[in-house]
Each structure stands twice: as C-alpha cells, then as structure tokens.
Amino acid sequence: MTPLSHRAPLLLAMGLLPILATTACSAAGPDTTTAAQATPAAASADQRPFTATEVSRFDQPWAMTFLPDGSLLVTEKRGKLQHLDLASGQKHEITGVPKVAYGGQGGFGDVILHPDFARNNVVYVSYAEEGTLDTRGAAVARATLALNADGSGALKDLKVIWRQTPKVSGQGHYGHRLAFGPDGKLWISSSERQKFDPAQDMSGNLGKIIRLNDDGSVPADNPFASQGGVAAQVWSLGHRNVLGIAFDANGKLWAQEMGPAGGDELNLIQRGANYGYPIVSNGDHYDGRPIPDHDTRPEFAAPKVTWNPVISPAGLMFYNGTLFPQWKGSAFIGGLSSTSLVRVAFDGENAREAERFNMGERIREVEQGPDGALWLLEDGSKARLLKLTPKA
User: Fold this and answer.
1) Which of 24, 166, 235, 294 is most buried per CB count within 10 Å?
2) Mean pLDDT on 24-51
3) What is the set of active-site residues?
4) Are 167 and 234 in contact (CB under 8 A)?
5) Which DSSP helix (H) or strand (E) runs through 329?
C-alpha cells in the first residue's frame, strides 16, 4: 500500500485527555450499542435483488475465509475452528486451536490466509487470551493448516506473533480483525478495551491500527518506528472498537468502527493519523454526556460516514465480483443491532450509505465467495451461513 500523505497532528499527552469514568457498554455484554433506535428505510425480502440461501449453521460464528479449493474456514467464538466442505456440506473441527478467553465480547476471533497460502499453508487467527489477575487481551497467532483428505485437520506449529499491550480487566472491545494489504503486510485492529484513554496513549497498542510484517516483526517504515517499543507497531491511533478492516481496489485501507451512542463510523485509514477517540466523536456517552464532534477539532481525522441511529457494524469487505456487476467497488458491512446488510458507495475518498437490506437477524460477518456470491454469517447460537445470489 502506498503510504498516504495526510498526517493529523497527535495529542499524546495524557494530561490533555478528559477524565472519562463511564464505560461504553457493559463489559460483559454483546458488542452492540444501546442508543435508541429508529428503523431506517431498508429493503425487505421481496425488494432485495438477491436470494438468500441457508447453507449451514454454526454456534456463535465470528469470522470466515475461503480456501483456494472453495471450502470455508469458520471461527466460533467459544474456541472452535470449523472446516466446511461446501460441495458435500460436511463440517469438521480443526484441532490445535489456541485456548481462548471466552466471555462477553471475548473468544475466538478472525481467521485469514497468508498471501502465499497456496504454497505455505499458513493461516492467521486472532483471539482473546487470559492474563494474570483477571486481565485479558487479544492475541494473533500464525500456524500451518494441515488438512486431511476427509476434510478434518489441525493447526501445526502455532506461534503467537502479536499481543495487545497492556492486558486489562473486562471482556469488551478487543477488535482483533485481520487483513493482509497489497504491500504484503499484516494489519490488525486493536480496540481500546472500553478503557477510553489508551486510544491516545502510545505506551500501549490499544485503540490503534497495527501494521506488521508477516512474521510479526515491525516494518522499518512504520510512522512511529523511531519511537521503538509497541509504538513502532502503530499505523494510526484514536480508535474505539474496530470490527472490520479491508482494502479497496486502489490499495487504501478502510475501517468501520463501533462508536458510542449515535457514533458508528467508517474511516479511511491514513498513515500516522489520529482519529480522536475519546477526545472527539460524532456520538455521545451512554449516560448522555456529550462528546465534542470531529468538526470542533480539525486536527483529528474525521470519519467518511457516520451513523445515527447506529448500525452496530461487524465485518467489512469490498466487492469486486461479477455476479452483482452493479455493486463492483462497493463495500458491505454487516449490521448487528440494525439486523441488516449495508452497502456503501464511494466517490474517490468520499463515501456514503447507498442501500440497506433488512436481513431480520444480527449479521456478524460478510465475505465474497470465489464465484462472486456474497456470504453472510448471522450472530449467535444456531446462526445461519447464508449465500446471496442474484434473483432470477
């Protein structure tokens, strides 16, 4: 990815931060906002340009990724990695998964493939792990996926290559979404764990977007590499709860962020930029106390799209397939509290919500399949895996 030139000035002195005592949502609760909702206009089932077909069901799925043979890896929050053969419908649990700290928003998280997976069979997984004295934090590990002929398999030689620092109390806002960029680097969303101030504190990596080499080492050209320590991992800061990161066709990184009450965001991630949380937000605290909007502090990078009422975004992908040619270049976001699939359209570096489809259930994840179909994972127990194809 070509580094972007814009760089917002940084407010790193913790003494400049307001003292924020409340939490953004229950530490043990689901990752959704609690702001009063007004149902936005959304296409109903008979108005949608696609047919949604149930393919399988999972227990609290969180992420999915397609393998080169067209089969699917799905993480389940309680700590399972499932391999689904879409041709036969057979499902096998992959062994060798790390122990996860399950509870609240914590558990097994993302799964992605190394860019050279076809040669090295390396996968990356993220998860919440236990610390000492009732603390927890996200971790990212890489391993070799060894599949058997019957579809079963195991993760081999698993090695943790990154951890949230510091581990803190509570069970919310891990983030831990993963993506590989066109530059071959590994990108990680590290949310602020419902602790507010760490998003502005460069002595830790909470509330940041992280950029690493594929082995977990720090690239020498990261914007804060000269500071050393965990600051060297950081690409951008001032984030709340980033539950989706994806690159567009031009190699630009976008991130959707679950904000406070009335403050969900879609951000264009720029080198070294500070996105302002918790100093600014277009939402407010859940107890009603206002947070200054982005336009009051132009030194902070402002979101390209905000949602009020919120959508509670989960998952983010850019569509480049041919089954839905009208959507090429659009982004899709799953909606939790909004029980929707949201399409975002772009004009250069500007973005807007273009369509919203009422799915009737909380949508945790959205991906594009090898044939250009859209695939959705619902949230919760007995959650459906849905394949979206054009209506005849």
Assistant:
1) 24
2) 56
3) 173
4) no
5) none
pLDDT digits (tens, 9 = 90+) for 72-123: 999 999 999 999 999 999 999 999 999 999 999 999 999 999 999 999 999 9
Task: Tell me the C-alpha distance between 227 and 106, whole Å.
Answer: 30
pLDDT of residue 46: 79
Integer Cα distance of 175 and 44 in angstroms: 30
E strand or H helix at 117, and its extent?
A: helix 117-120
Helix%, strand%, coil% for the chain, nearest 5: 5, 40, 50
Work out whether the CA dihedral 210, 213, 217, 220 comes out positive or negative. negative
Nearby residues of 340 by Cβ (< 8 Å), 6 or more positions away: 42, 311, 334, 356, 357, 358, 359, 363
Of 78, 43, 40, 46, the closest CA to residue 59 belongs to 78
Model pTM score: 0.90
pLDDT range class, residue 2, cuts 50, 70, 90? very low
Neighbouring residues of 302: CB distance < 8 A, sequence distance ≥ 6: 294, 295
Give the model confidence (pLDDT) of 248-274 as tens digits.
Answer: 999 999 999 999 999 999 999 999 999
CB 262 within 8 A of CB 283: yes
Burial (CB < 10 A; 0-12, 13-18, 19+), residue 205, is buried
75 with 109: CB under 8 angstroms? yes
C-alpha closest to that of 302 among 277, 351, 253, 267: 267
